[in-house]
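Workshop exercise sheet. Pairs work together: one partner reads the sequence aloud, the other fills in the structure field after running the prediction. Swap roles for the next sheet.
Pair: D.N. / O.F.
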Amino acid sequence: MKVEARPYIGSLDESFLFDNYLSFRWDEVSAFSWSLEEKTTFLQMQFHLKQRSYQQQFPNLETFILTVDSEKVGHYMVAKTSSEIRLVDLFIIPAYRSKGIGSFVMKKLMKKAKENSQTMTLSVFYQNNQARKLYEKLGFVLEKEEVPYIKMRWNPFIGSIR
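Structure field:
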């Protein structure tokens, strides 16, 4: 299994990012008594608002597409400053979860942070226990609870890449 990350190409990858978002939110909106078209339109609006929000909050946002043997399996978004790498979003399609792809991304980013004497931060949904366990295993510690998220930090001078 060859895992790679490549830069996001808008025209080529936007529908893939939307499909990821759709799969993440579909269970939530399926309970609504809306038509399929209304649910899809609502999620398209939410997706575009989320993308705009990320761009406003993180003007230097970089998006990468994750592939396994050239098949798109997820994406991640990072924002970098001189002192920090912020993992803004990480999504892996369900069929490829628990296969080391999240660890691949995290270790790659942590190595870069260590090389540049940067800390690394992220926010994780408080109910996402699988991701939280991974981050804790890698040495991330709770920094602050901002319901419904938990902000975590990794300092390369305190922990090591495991």
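Discussion prompt: The beta strands are 3-7, 61-68, 71-80, 84-92, 119-125, 141-146, 149-154. What would you look at next?
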